[in-house]
Design goal:
The protein has about 170 residues and is α/β, with parallel strands linked by helices. Helices cover about 30% and strands about 10% of the residues. The chain has one domain. Bound molecules: zinc ion (ZN) (2 copies).
């Protein structure tokens, strides 16, 4: 860290957009967002949801390999779910289970990532009938404990889990 509070640009692809806040001191938390992005980097700034360079976190190759493995697993399930075919219910039931391997791995990676910077796993789950992704949560989807607001997220500090903050109603 240079000690400067100047924000640093993260990637040329964001040229023209406001700079990310990650150069600020102290830097904000990160959120592990697998989703179906083509970006292999799943580590996002919690404020702007932009990729954070792994090197800047000082995490080792083993950690980045584990992140890659987890993203493959997440994408495989997510794709089966989106495909809406014979494996849709299977994938939906995996995401709906608080103890599913894909969730456990996400939480483990977030808690390991905490060594570098406060880190949360962006939880993803589906409605009980598996038709939609859940957009808002009344409590932590893992421990049912309270959530606290953090930028565009609500987080469970105990589980290192983040869910999207409830959307504000659109202006009339
Ligand atoms: Zn940032
Ligand atoms: Zn929790």
């Amino acid at each position: 860290m240079s000690g400067s509070a100047e924000p640093t640009p993260v990637d040329a692809k964001y040229a023209g957009e406001p700079p990310c806040c990650c150069g600020t001191d102290p830097p904000p938390p990160v959120v592990l967002v697998a989703g179906l992005t083509h970006d292999p980097n799943v580590v996002m700034c919690a404020v702007f949801r932009r990729p954070v360079e792994l090197d800047s976190l000082g995490l080792d190759d083993e950690y980045s390999n584990s992140l890659g493995y987890w993203k493959c697993l997440f994408d495989a399930l997510h794709f089966l779910w989106l495909d809406s075919n014979e494996f849709e219910a299977f994938a939906a039931s995996a995401f709906a289970s608080p103890s599913a391997r894909v969730h456990r791995m996400g939480m483990e990676l977030a808690s390991e990532g905490n060594r570098a910077r406060r880190a949360y796993y962006a939880w993803f789950s589906t409605t009980p009938d598996g038709t939609e992704s859940i957009e808002s949560y009344a409590a932590c989807p893992h421990c049912a404990g309270p959530l606290s607001p953090a930028w565009k997220w609500e987080v469970c500090e105990r589980c290192s889990v983040a869910v999207p903050a409830p959307q504000l109603p659109a202006p009339a």
